[in-house]
Amino acid sequence: MSSFSSSSPFNWESQEKSRTNLIKKVRSFETAYTSEDGRTMPEDYEEGIGLLKPNNNMPTSFVPDYSFSSNANLLNVTEATEMLEHTPQTTKETKETINKRPFRWKQWFTKNTVPEGTPRRIYVNKPEMNEQQHFMTNAVSTAKYNLFTFLPKFLYEEFSKSANIFFLFISGIQQIPNISPTSRYTTLVPLVIVLLITAVKEVIEDFGVHKSDSELNARKCKVYDGSRFIEKPWRQIKVGDICRVDNAQFFPADLILLSSSEPEGLCYIETSNLDGEVNLKIKQALPVTATMVSPAQLATFEGMIESEQPNNRLYNYDGTLTTKDEDGNTKRFPLDPNMLLLRGAQLRNTSWIYGIVIFTGHETKLMLNSSKKPTKASNVTRKTNRNILYLFAMLVTMSVLCSIGNYVTSTRDGANLDYVGVPITQLGKEVGYNILTFMILFNSFIPISLMVTMEIVKYIQSTMIDNDLDIYYDKTDTPAVARSSSLIEELGQIEYVFSDKTGTLTCNEMEFRQCSIAGLSYASHPDPDKRPTSDDDAHGQFSFEQLEEHLQTSQHKHIINEFLTSLMTCHTVIPETENGTIIYQASSPDESALVKGASEVFGYKFVARRPHSIHCIRKGTEEEYQILNVCEFNSTRKRMSVVLRGPDGKIKLYCKGADTVILERLAKGSNPFVSATLSHLEDYACEGLRTLCFAMREISNEEYTEWSVMYDKAATTLVNRADELDHVAEMIEKDMFLLGATAIEDKLQDGVPDTIHTLQEANIKVWVLTGDRQETAINIGYSCKLLTEDMELVVCNEEDQISTKKFLQERLGQLSAQMQQDPLALVIEGRSLTFALEKDVEKTFYDLATQCKAVICCRVSPLQKALVVKLVKKFSKSILLAIGDGANDVSMIQAAHVGVGISGVEGLQAARSADFAISQFRFLRKLLLVHGAWAYQRLSKMIFFYFYKNVAMYLTQFWYAIFNGFSGQTLYESWTMSCFNVFFTFLPPMAIGVFDQFTSARLLDKYPQMYTLGQRNEFFNQKRFWGWIFNAVYHSAMLYFLGMAAFADDSVFTNGHSGGQWWVGTTIFTATLATILWKAALITDIWTKYTFIAIPGSMVIWFIFLPLVSYVGPLLPVDIFMEYYGIIPELFGNINYWLFFIIVPLMCVLRDYLWKYVKRMYRPQSYHYIQEIQKYNLPDYRPRMDRFRRAVNKVRKIQRLKQSRGFAFAQNDNDQSRLIRMYDTTRQKPSG
């Protein structure tokens, strides 16, 4: 029988009633005071080792605060990213995100609100009680639409466009009897077709997102059903379920850790998807649940969790578990972030864990940190809508003028117009109707097909990106994907790139590349230019194979042995054996790389760890080292040491750390290799490698006995224990001998340095926003060429708002006073960034940051990334791009104008929320410089040409109105007018928009400075718009008035017949079409077979259409095309028709050709030169100053490296000593 039977003194109902008054929280994380890293909790707890530190002052009676804010009565600071606004915790954004629930009828009619301070109660192994609370499902949706929201959302977006509102208005007034001079459906039907095509495109794009969501929701996870674990898809996981997650799997929801395969319920997790940090975090279960390591033990587990309500604070959690302890007494145990496993994180180096679900779906902290997917519109689209408004104003003006002209004509000549049937007294009333009539007549002045043509062109351009083999990654079989074709032209106008570091710039892999031992440098792949001239050449570079020889033959072989032994022993790595292979678990990727290098490259293998010893195999010989003490790494000490007793019985201290702290602790006068090692460190740092120095000393038994007493005393003190331990460590970390140094490569993705350099040449500013530590971020900045040797680093690490504001103002003042010569790079830490984003400081921060050549924000949380992007967007009109790979980058990606996700690796949620997805950062180069530049230039030209052709065609109707008494009579046959945009001029804009190239991809990549044309809006600005409009007005006037002059007496036939309206109108239409097509040919930069089909082919279509409708039209049962009856012989057999068709278009386009000639010859722009280089295949002459600049940069690099030699180490500041003593890897682990 269950220990929680109804007869038990533990009664749920009475317990719940007794908790109506929740009192002050005793042990919770005060979010009003951030930790030193800019987060909202102490770093110990953030790194996940808080429970490993005993807290004797912690009260046994733990009463948490369950309100949405961890501290309801304190200053409301929800996150280091909330800009310290004094607002209630439940922000509008958070509410919107929480409300993104799956469809449930009850929720449509009732509002499910939770009173403040009310906890979420989750019953263990009682699914029926949890079902009654109607918790949210675990299915997530990041799509823009669903079945119910598609129609209203789509119509709202489409009718927020000026053109669609106008055509809806025209369609409406066409239904009024006796108003429209055309059919009542001539505008409505094209509008519906345009909306349908756009809707299909939206559905196709959103279907891809739904498909990705479905794949995510269909992932499998093992869920406990009361007796065993069964596999279920993620979407079926519910609050209260107990899940089993195996190694390398992602957590399907927010879980509380119950137990694991590791001692005392420990587990490692990787949170790079959440905060960008590569070092592993450690979580630990409550002791009362850590012993439940089998399904049978879980069957006896009952209790209740009282949890805080869902919120977006990644690093805070408060709750209690009420259950029975070992003695059978009911107790409440505190739950804190140390036991919280967040959705999006990954289990690492741990065989399995059991966890109970507390938050699901859109209520998980990951999803609450992901803002709602916004609706983005490109800059070109916004300007196009504005230009349509200008055309609308012109159309209204024309309609009003024509209506007034009609009124004046009717008033003046009323006696001669009695056949019209409008009494003089009704003329005033007719003015309003006439305005509507002329608006319908001129409505094609605004091109209805422009929007759908833009959508088609963008879609085709996006497929070109999808099928580009240059940005296809064959290793993962991942092509680029344009998820949102509506933003494709934005890629050609980017001025800021905001990039994540981990997984975006780097591969998240550490590799042991080089080392310095006894003054000699060794490398895995030696530089041929540094071939050593002798066996003791300190300036040469030996191979790792030669190191093996030196280990046997060198006079310093004992030093080499000690160095390799220190790699093998001085660490906190835990080895695990899987299928005969040793896997090294390490919270620090640096340590893992060093131990793996010593094992695989040099044969110094670390094979097992026990609570007080480690087992190693050194060159085939098994050895055991007794671990006496561990002096841990922290950000202040910048080093770690181990004191161990070797197989020979000697006690030795091995120490590793930053060169600055190691060098000052060396023995005086007995370290001959310091100078050579420092020189090697500078070389390593020049290559962007992460460096560590290694030193040692032998300790006598007497000295160790005396020191260990002081160490034990410091380890058990209750006051300032950490400081006391650091002080004791100082006493033994002295008089050391320098063994050498290591160089680890935080492996960059291929082509990252070249890509960043090229983007900077294109005047694109690159900002790196990372959750990693400052030293690591700076190191990577130099590796990827974001930071260069001639830059001065401005490092902001201030601890409060006042000092942050003062620091930023002082540096900005120096810039303003022109006291700064070298370019600047700003490095700001997360805590300082919190204050920099305050209302009274943000403008200063923005002004300083935008004047720096590079910006690195480190230790930032996901929402801080989004806030930085929004800050630049707020004060700048620049187009911003954000690129990342993890869930922590989603908010930043959605906040930017263009979001790019790195795809191809499992668990990378950013690609699902992004507008474009690529698999490597280097592909961003072609995506922007080539596809972006082409798309922007093509669309700009196509849109302006569209405006031009419609204005040129339909303005001739306005000129004709002047001659027909403003009667509303058309110059052209009505179906011919309807076919103008659909058949006769549909292909040229398509050809321009899809195939035109103002220069080749090779030259765009070779000359990245060309990209600035898009940043300056060179191809799409108001000056160009009005230039095209005035050109269209000029052409229309030339065509119409020359036609009227040529056919003024209407005697164009030798037999005395007159031409008539339709003959003249068809002739002018032919000439107008020829002029428009000739203009298209003039602006085309590259001719392909499709261009030939589109431009001359459109003229052919007209000459096929005209005879066809002339002869077939009258035979149809419906009276259409009667105006063309018998016109073909009169047209094609008349020399005047052909002369007008050839001469007038030539006269129109001649001015354009001369203007183009003058611009290219006397006012050339940069792309004109590049076009000539391409045409004549001219060689590229680079300035010889480059060699001089490189020499100067090398000198500056050496000067900088004397101050910083590349130290970076990602070890956590936590109780590693206690952690490693929990492990005995020789024992069998529970299978779960």
Describe the structure.
With 1232 residues, the chain is an alpha+beta fold. It has five domains: 143-217, no CATH class; 237-369, Calcium-transporting ATPase, cytoplasmic transduction domain A; 481-505 and 749-918, HAD superfamily/HAD-like (Rossmann fold, 3-Layer(aba) Sandwich), CATH 3.40.50; 510-747 and 1208-1221, Calcium-transporting ATPase, cytoplasmic domain N (3-Layer(aba) Sandwich); 934-1175, Calcium-transporting ATPase, transmembrane domain. The chain is built from 43 helices and 34 strands. Strand 24 (639-645) and strand 25 (651-657) form a beta hairpin. Helix 21 (701-716) packs antiparallel against helix 22, helix 31 packs antiparallel against helix 33 (987-995) and helix 31 packs antiparallel against helix 37. Residues 1-111 have low confidence and may be disordered. Belongs to the cation transport ATPase (P-type) (TC 3.A.3) family. Type IV subfamily. Residues 911-1165 form the P-type ATPase C-terminal domain. InterPro entries: ATPase_P-typ_cyto_dom_N (IPR023299), ATPase_P-typ_P_site (IPR018303), ATPase_P-typ_TM_dom_sf (IPR023298), ATPase_P-typ_transduc_dom_A_sf (IPR008250), HAD-like_sf (IPR036412), HAD_sf (IPR023214), P-type_ATPase_IV (IPR006539), P-type_ATPase_N (IPR032631). Keywords: ATP-binding, Golgi apparatus, Magnesium, Membrane, Metal-binding, Nucleotide-binding, Phosphoprotein, Translocase, Transmembrane, Transmembrane helix.
